[in-house]
Amino acid sequence: VQLVESGGGLVQPGGSLRLSCAASGFTFSSYAMRWHRQAPGKERELVAGITSAGDSTNYKDSVKGRFTISRDNAKNTVYLQMNSLKPEDTAVYYCNFARLGYDYWGRGTQVIVSS
Question: Residue 29: which residues within 8 A CB-CB, separation 6 or more?
Fold first, then answer.
């Protein structure tokens, strides 16, 4: 199993980034996927989730209306479109899924929102 995040970087407040998570080693289309983030000195938190078919999503309250999670099961990839970014969105972003009670994680991609 491998999850590889990409797309992070430095962006000014109000800017946008699109994160990608390329999955391999498992039947991607069978599993819900999630994006989490961890800011310096804080616990990792759930940001967004999407069902296996992509027909339902959920979001942390503070990102609703700004972030959009989506997936392409043909490409084994889950995305996080982040708009209207704020300094408090600065964190390492991780994609994740759970199988048989075990959580799988990527290594993360750093997002820094700063002027």
Answer: 52, 53, 73
Q: How far apart are CA 110 and CA 94, in angstroms?
A: 9
Contact between 85 and 113 under an 8 Å Cβ cutoff? The reply is yes
Picking from 52, 31, 48, the residue whose alpha carbon sits closest to that of residue 99 is: 31
Cα distance between the two ends of the chain: 37
**Per-residue pLDDT reduced to its tens digit, 12-68:** 999 999 999 999 999 999 999 999 999 999 999 999 999 999 999 999 999 999 999
